[in-house]
Structure formats: structure tokens, C-alpha cells
Write a structure and sequence with these properties.
Layout: E1 2-13, E2 16-27, E3 31-36, H1 42-49, E4 57-62, E5 65-66, H2 72-78, E6 80-83, H3 95-102, H4 112-121, H5 124-127, H6 138-150, E7 156-160, H7 168-183, E8 187-191, H8 195-201, E9 204-209, E10 212-218, H9 219-224, H10 226-232
Parallel strand pairs: 3-8, 3-9, 6-7, 7-8
Antiparallel strand pairs: 1-2, 1-4, 4-5, 9-10
Helix pairs in contact: 3-6
């Protein structure tokens, strides 16, 4: 079942068209990945889905409701959380404050069990709750950004370059948690420069080049594709 659908999406920055009629299906319960070179349009795609950019034309539907051009806070309230490239944490607030802000739009009360769930994914955050987020390492800040998004109880999580700038061991941790979050029922749309890790983690992948989808398939097929190997996997 398609939970999030992008249809004939065109997005421009002034006169420069960044997305040329892309189409993406995000199936419920799956991890879908977008791979491609810098400037391919991956971040623009996520920013448009989450309402940060308005498309020139095309539609985005979520649970059969049109959310094209809807304001970001409304989209978050409906169940789509966006972890942006660069993390976007509040550096001068504590870890605890950042997590609390993640639940800001919720009408229900945050349960202690939700914090315990976060700490089961990222135990180090429990020790850092009173620290200012700006004092965390890059990897810890990425953990916090993902955790803050989870506090809104999303149905779909948009992840933009979660491994960017992280040490290899931290990359392994982040991707392990992405799989665990998905196993709990959260659908994930993952943008990632580390194409090999992304394709090993996701169920289905889309390859973007200069604002267009040029290939999409099950990730097993993409990993075996000569075109993908040559362009993105160093093969």
C-alpha cells in the first residue's frame, strides 16, 4: 500500500528548475532510498514533501490526502517528520529541551516509555540530557536529531544524509537504528550519499540525476545493476 505518493513534481529555485516531474511511491512499512550525486535534487525532494518548498506543479499525497504546498507544521502534525541535512538541532538548548520540542505539536502527554525507547536506540543520550546540544559530538547530534523527530510519533520519517561527516563506526550505529525504527512500524524515506549502505538498508531505491528519476527498483536489483555499480558503488 502506497502511503506517500509524489506525482509529476516540478520544483524551481527562481528560473532554475530543480525537479523535472519526478514520481515516487513510498510504501507503508518500507524503507525507500533516494540516491544520486550532489545537486541531483534529493534534498529538494524531501524539503518539498515536508512543506519547506512549494512546487511549481505536481502533487504530493499522504494517506490519500493532498498535502501539496501545505505548511510544514501541519504536515508534521499529520505524521511526517523531517530530519534535515545538517541536523538542525537547537545548539543552545539542552538535549532534554530538544526532545521536548519534538513533541510540541502533540495533543497527548509524552510518556516515560517514549524516552526509554529513545534511550534504547541511543543510550548515550540518557547521559547527555542536561547538556547543551551544541556540546555534543557530530554523531551524538545526529542521534538527537533523529530522536527529536521520533518524539512527534511520525508515521513517515524523512532522513536527509544521516551519515554525513560521521566516523565509520557511528555510520554503522545510525543505520542499525534506522532498521530498528522501521521494524517498529515507521515508514522511512532516506536520502543518502553513501549509496552502498543505503541500498543495503532499504527495500526499494530511486536513482536521481539532475532532477529526474532515472532508475527505480528493488534494492537487490539496484545493487546488481552495472549502471549503479559504475556510478555509485565504485564498481
Amino acid at each position: 500500500m502506497t502511503m506517500l505518493a509524489v506525482r509529476d513534481l516540478h520544483v524551481a529555485y527562481g528560473q532554475i528548475e530543480a525537479l523535472h516531474g519526478i514520481e515516487i511511491d513510498v510504501e507503508k512499512g518500507k524503507i525507500i532510498t533516494l540516491i544520486g550525486a550532489n545537486g541531483a535534487g534529493k534534498t529538494t525532494t524531501l524539503r518539498t514533501i515536508s512543506g519547506l518548498l512549494k512546487p511549481r506543479s505536481g502533487t504530493i499525497t499522504f494517506n490519500d490526502r493532498n498535502i501539496t504546498g501545505v505548511k510544514p507544521h501541519v504536515i508534521t502534525g499529520r505524521g511526517i517528520s523531517h530530519v534535515p541535512e545538517g541536523r538542525g538541532i537547537f545548539a543552545n538548548l539542552t538535549v532534554a529541551d530538544n526532545l521536548e520540542l519534538g513533541a510540541y505539536l502533540r495533543k497527548d502527554k509524552v510518556q516515560q516509555s517514549e524516552y526509554e525507547r529513545i534511550f534504547s536506540f541511543f543510550p548515550v543520550l540518557k547521559e547527555r540530557m542536561k547538556q547543551n546540544a551544541g556540546t555534543l559530538s557530530g554523531g551524538e547530534q545526529q542521534m538527537l536529531a533523529i530522536s527529536r523527530a521520533l518524539m512527534s510519533k511520525p508515521q513517515v520519517l524523512l532522513l536527509d544524509e544521516p551519515s554525513l561527516g560521521l566516523a565509520p563506526q557511528m555510520v554503522q550505529t545510525i543505520f542499525r537504528v534506522i532498521r530498528e525504527i522501521n521494524a517498529e512500524g515507521v515508514t522511512i524515506l532516506l536520502v543518502e550519499q553513501n549509496a552502498h549502505m543505503a541500498l543495503l538498508t532499504a527495500h526499494r531505491g530511486y536513482v536521481m540525476e539532475t532532477g529526474r528519476i532515472v532508475l527505480h527498483d528493488e534494492t537487490r536489483a539496484l545493487l546488481a545493476s552495472d549502471r549503479v555499480k559504475k556510478a555509485y558503488l565504485g564498481g
